Amino acid sequence: MPKITFLPLGRTIDVQEDQSILDIAIDHDVPLQQACGGFCACTTCHIIVKSGSDSLSPMEEEEQERLERMGILDQHSRLSCQSKVRGDVVVEVVNLDDY
């Protein structure tokens, strides 16, 4: 069973494979902003992948375009609504006020 760790909370959760990080956060009361309900229509659920990026579903073009418009796309940025867990991963919950 895959595990996800949310930073800076330091909280690790056992998860079902192919669940989105956003759904996991909602199901386990992890404070993660989201405005569009997980439809890749905004960027409020932006996260930074600290480790295990190869254990996430690949980034699709729509997600990449959203992150590019946000102006902070790098190899570690993902939208939690579009990132499905397939193995152990560590992510940092981003506060959009910092950008």
Quick rundown:
This protein is an alpha+beta fold. It has helices spanning 21-27, 61-70; strands at residues 3-7, 11-14, 46-51, 77-79, 89-93. Strand 1 (3-7) and strand 2 (11-14) form a beta hairpin.
Report what the structure shows.
The chain has 99 residues and is of the alpha+beta class. The protein has a single domain (3-98), classed as Beta-grasp domain (Ubiquitin-like (UB roll), Roll), CATH 3.10.20.30. 17% of the residues lie in helices and 23% in strands. It has two helices and five strands, in the order ββαβαββ. A five-stranded mixed beta sheet has the order 2-1-5-3-4. A hairpin with a 3-residue loop joins strand 1 and strand 2. The longest helix is centred in the middle third of the chain and has 10 residues, at 61-70.
SSE layout and pairings?
Layout: E1 3-7, E2 11-14, H1 21-27, E3 46-51, H2 61-70, E4 77-79, E5 89-93
**Total helix count?**
2
How would the global form be characterised? globular
Please identify, by name, the CATH architecture: Roll
End-to-end Cα distance, whole Å, is 34 Å
Give the fraction of residues assigned to helices. 10-25%
User: Poorly predicted ranges (pLDDT <50, ≥5 residues)?
Assistant: none
Report the CATH C-level class.
Alpha Beta
- Number of β-strand runs: 5
